[in-house]
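User: Can you predict the 3D structure for this chain?
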Amino acid sequence: MTAGNDVRAVGVAAIQHCATTDVDSNLDAVERLALEARDAGAEVVMTAEAFAYIGPDRGKRALLEPLPSGGPILDRCRQLAVRLGCDLLLGGFHEAAPDAGKAFNTCVHLDARGEVAALYRKIHLFDIQLADGTELHESRRTAAGDALITTRLPFGLLGLTICYDLRFPYLYQALTDQGAVALTVPSAFTATTGAVHWHTLLRTRAIECQCYVIAPAQHGQHNDRRRSYGHSLIVDPWGEVIAECEDGDGFALAVIDPARVAQVRKQLPSLTHRVPTSSLRCEPSGANSANGR
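Assistant: Here is the predicted structure, written as structure tokens:
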């Protein structure tokens, strides 16, 4: 990958807030922080997963909207994109699915005109029971997506993922193979898993894919049973954290420079050294030498 004439360095903001069941308040927070980020130099603004609502499933089901046509929530976000005059990525939109019992968890790219430029439906669903009592069973009410999605921004191609996807490196490698120079991971990582895994996984995805990784995150206590880790990050293709919003409402802001991606990939050309797994033999233990050692 080389930085061409059609791409340039761009300021990108990863917004962090604490969503609850109050949709209007959640959207007010997103709007305020997005405008602050734009005024600070962002040309692309990204929100966290479940930016409009976190709460009981019955409340979420009342908010579901079809995409790309949308409803009140998408309409307000379209207006915000136009007001910002820049690209707006909605990290996790509650989208109506064909199965009436389920919804999609969808990342939506709105361009500066408020038009839907891309939709990514979360592929990997988070079903866990943690020692601290946290239980999440996303697959009960969420339908899984089945498509890799990249979208074009002024710095080049952005690979779209959501939260739990972060634990599956093959997805990020595939997006890199499609030409992504940056990867987004909007999240509502639990406080328990985030404290141990968040920084390590994000930096690892950046290093192995030699891409920027942009991770807007939820923070704080959403309700009695759910707390998110926060620490919205932007990581460069060398694996350095170049912006972070540790806790509280705010945003991480950094420049995404395609020339830096090209520099890192030239300096350490590991992507060109990858060997397809289909070309490798699978041998039983002890079969790789004549004497079995």
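The first helix runs from residue 23 to 39. The chain has one domain: 10-279.
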